[in-house]
Automatic annotation (TrEMBL):
Species annotation: Algoriphagus aquimarinus
Pfam family, one: Epimerase
Family membership noted in the UniProt record: Belongs to the NAD(P)-dependent epimerase/dehydratase family.
SUPFAM superfamilies: NAD(P)-binding Rossmann-fold domains
Domain of life: Bacteria
Domain NAD-dependent epimerase/dehydratase: 5-208
Gene3D superfamilies assigned: NAD(P)-binding Rossmann-like Domain
Protein name: NAD-dependent epimerase/dehydratase
Length: 288
C-alpha cells in the first residue's frame, strides 16, 4: 500500500513537479491557498485541501500521513506582510505541530540559498527574513516528527513563473528581443534542474527509515555543487537558442550587497546516493 504524503503549494512550480514525480510511489495529497488556481495540475486527480486550519485538521483526521513536504511560499515584493507571514511562517508552523500530534514521520521544509546567516543581501529581504524565522519556529517545536530542511539553489525548469530569471531570459532570447539589459554578470549561481531537485526529495523520503531515531533536524543543500557566472549562463542560453538578441552586460548595477558566489555544499545529499543528472546544456535545451 502506498504511503501518503502531503505537498503544500502543489499548484506551484516545485509542488506540481514534485507531485508528478512522486505520484507513482506515493499517494499524493495537495494543500493549496486557492483551490481554483490549479493550471499546473489541471489534468491531475490529487485530493486537494485548502490551507485554513479547519481544512488542515480535517486532512489529518482523514488520512494516515507519512510525510509533509512544504513547498508553498510567498516571495513577491508586492504581497502584503500578512500574506507573507501566513504562508511562510504560520502555515508551516501549524502543519509541523499537527505532524507531531498525528505521528507523521517527517516534515520536509523548503528553504532558499538566500537564507544565509549574517547576509546583508537586500533583494527579497522580507522573503528571506520570513524563511529564517520559519526555520527558527520549526526548530522550537518539540516532538518525534523529523524536521528536514531542503535549502534549494537556483532551481529552473519548464512551467516556472514568467518573471523568474531563467524563464524571463529564455523567453526574451526565443523571441529575439532587440536587447536585454543586464548587470556585469560576474555573480555566480548554482543552477539545478527541476527533475534533479525532485529526485533529491525522493531520495530523502526513501532514506527516512534509515535515519537515526534520536536526530530531530537535518539540512540538505540542493544544487550541483558547481557555480557558473550569470554572464556565462546567459551567453550559453543565447548560443543554444541561436538568438539575435543583443546582451548589454553592465547596463544595470549589481543589487546592494550582491551574493557574488553561491553553490551548494551537497556532500550529505550525495552520501544518500543522489546525483544530479541534467547538465546545463540539457536543461537549457529543455526550455527552448
Amino acid at each position: 500500500m502506498k504511503k501518503t504524503i502531503v505537498i503544500t503549494g502543489i499548484n506551484g512550480f516545485l509542488g506540481s513537479h514534485l507531485a508528478s514525480f512522486l505520484n507513482q510511489d506515493y499517494q499524493v495529497i495537495g494543500l493549496v491557498r486557492d483551490i481554483l488556481n490549479n493550471f499546473r495540475i489541471v489534468d491531475c486527480n490529487y485530493p486537494l485541501f485548502t490551507s485554513d486550519s479547519k481544512s488542515i485538521t480535517n486532512l489529518f483526521n482523514r488520512f494516515e500521513i507519512y510525510a509533509v513536504i512544504h513547498t508553498a511560499t510567498v516571495y513577491k515584493p508586492k504581497v502584503s506582510i500578512e500574506e507573507l507571514l501566513q504562508t511562510n511562517i504560520l502555515l508551516p508552523t501549524l502543519l509541523y505541530e499537527k505532524a507531531n500530534q498525528y505521528n507523521v514521520k517527517a516534515f520536509i521544509n523548503t528553504d532558499t540559498f538566500f537564507n544565509i546567516e549574517n547576509s546583508k543581501y537586500d533583494y527579497l529581504n522580507s522573503y528571506t527574513l520570513s524563511k529564517q524565522n520559519c526555520l527558527s519556529w520549526l526548530k522550537s517545536i518539540r516532538g518525534n516528527c523529523k524536521l528536514i530542511n531542503m535549502k534549494l539553489h537556483h532551481m529552473y525548469g519548464p512551467n516556472d513563473a514568467e518573471n523568474k530569471f531563467v524563464t524571463d531570459i529564455i523567453n526574451k532570447l526565443k523571441g529575439n528581443q532587440n536587447k536585454i539589459a543586464l548587470t556585469p554578470g560576474q555573480q555566480k549561481r548554482d543552477f539545478i534542474f527541476i527533475s534533479d531537485v525532485c529526485e533529491a526529495y525522493k531520495v530523502v523520503l526513501e532514506s527516512l527509515l534509515n535515519f537515526s531515531e534520536d536526530f530531530n533536524f537535518i539540512e540538505y543543500e540542493v544544487g550541483t555543487g558547481n557555480s557558473i557566472s550569470i554572464s556565462d549562463f546567459v551567453q550559453k542560453a543565447k548560443e543554444l537558442s541561436r538568438s539575435t538578441t543583443n546582451l548589454e552586460f553592465g547596463a544595470l548595477p549589481y543589487r546592494e550587497n550582491e551574493i557574488m558566489d553561491a553553490k551548494a555544499n551537497n556532500k550529505e545529499l550525495l552520501q544518500l546516493g543522489w546525483v544530479p543528472k541534467t547538465n546545463l546544456n540539457s536543461g537549457i535545451l529543455c526550455l527552448l
